[in-house]
Amino acid sequence: MMMKPAASRRSDATKAAILEAARERFATDGYERATIRAIARDANIDPSMVMRYYGSKEGLFAAVSVIDLRIPDLGALPGKHIGAVLVTHFLDRWERDDVLTALLRVGVTNPAGAERMRKVFVEQLTSIAAGVCPDPADAPRRAALVASQILGMALARYVLLIAPAVSMSREEVVSWLAPTVQRYLTAAQP
Q1: Whole-prediction pTM value?
Q2: Alpha carbons 87 and 183: distance in angstroms, whole number
Q3: pLDDT tens readout for residues 139-164
Q4: In whole angstroms, what is the distance from residue 130 CA to residue 187 CA?
Q5: Number of H helices, E strands in the chain
Q6: How far is 31 from 34, CA to CA, in rounded Å?
Q7: Measured between alpha carbons, how far is 118 from 62 in angstroms, rounded to an integer?
Q8: Alpha-carbon dihedral of residues 69, 147, 181, 157, nearest 10 degrees?
Q9: Coil/strand/helix, residue 47
Q10: All domains of the chain, ordered by start, with CATH?
Q11: How far apart are the first and last CA of the chain?
């Protein structure tokens, strides 16, 4: 049976409202305290609609946390600039993407959030590392090292708000992190 266009539009609008409300609620309250009822209230719908479309809080969180890191093509860059471009890219993402920050918050307190964060970073960083590292077989390890730097700074700067990390200029952060990220991706294995 084919859905009528008007019903499809209403369904799409309802899903979009749920996702927007869920993003805000997860970012504000975190995974543990966010409730289906509160999200439904924020979206001006009945809680049963959230369950109809997403099945559970975990399903809704997974839908909200589909994140494309939009990592630039590093293979086209001169090798010596890869670290700086990648760190700058991630600073840009953290500073304008509340969903990414919310995912980090949830990832440090909740197993489902941690799994989601792992999936986002491992999959996307490993493919980038494979394209630029000397031995593509070593890409997963190198991607994990890059993630440790990127996520560590994001946690310190945007979640925990550690004063020195927050007060550093973008240029300082790039100057400190870029050489390490560069080494992780392009240096010969120690």
Answers
A1: 0.74
A2: 13
A3: 999 999 999 999 999 999 998 999 99
A4: 13
A5: 10, 0
A6: 5
A7: 12
A8: 80
A9: helix
A10: 5-64 (1.10.10.60), 74-186 (no CATH)
A11: 61
